[in-house]
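#random but structural
TW: two for the price of one
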Amino acid sequence: MQKAAFLITECKQDAFAFAPHFSRRVEAGFTAGQVCSDGGALLLREVDRKINLIGRLAACFSDGREAERVKHKTAPMLAQRIFGPALGYEDLNDHEQLRSGPLFALLAGQRELEQPLAGKSTLNRLELAYTLVEALRRLGLKGTEWAEAQVDTIRLKLLKIGAIVRVSARRVLLQLSSSYAWKDIFAQAFHALRC
């Protein structure tokens, strides 16, 4: 007994003729191209051009990344995180969709509008890493050989230290690895921050 094979046709209709409205035809089609719901954001862009919020904020950051490896500059990432919530996109997950839109590229000041902006992971690192590590660099590592170190260097060499954590009723004790190579830098940072 032979089974019948059914061909499934794929329907790719782009235009639709609806019932007429009196003497007018009613038609719809997927022909508009890329559409966004945030066209009024250009007003926010003009506000920023007038008060230079993003430029002034970007000047507060010192970017210790290797310039030739930087894909997303600080100012456009700040623009994403400022314009996003202003338009109701408060969650970083929203940026996975927004990063490919030409309007957000325009708001972020990106020359090539078809190039994607930073994604949620990169934006998250901007928010977390720069704020704390920049303060650590400025306050705790000033005058040391790591005062200009990159975020990854500081993270790997100063923050990722093997430790045994012991908790009792009266204290929390971190027993740091006795073979840690940068004890002196750690001690300098500690004294600069605590004293």
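TW: number two ↓
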Amino acid sequence: MADDSFTEVTTRSWLSRLGDAFKGILVGLILFIAAFSLPFWNEGRAVERTRSLEEGEGIVASVSAAEVDASKEGALVHISGRAVPVGETSDPVLAIGGKVIRLSRKVEMYQSGHRSNTILTWVLRLVGLVTMTLGFLE
């Protein structure tokens, strides 16, 4: 029974190990630089967004929803009022409807795949726009 054992010995050269170490150092430096530059970039975008919102708050004009003021054409305006539907809205395919502002329908279709040897393939089809194949081992 002692002859049933198997031992495999592999060796790597000194330069190969040194090259792997330098690759690790390079990846570490890239991650270190990214750790400081990406948050700085994100904060700059947040400051820019805050400034643009404050600018918009300073130039916005409140107007009445009852009438259109031609002097405010192209300006940033604030309208407050009651949203009332004009008529009935319906979807004949789903047989629903009523007095609503907007009625939208989102359709998705999922289809399972077939077996081929040891791989189970699933095909995901989203309204004919995207076809994605994923393989899973059994």
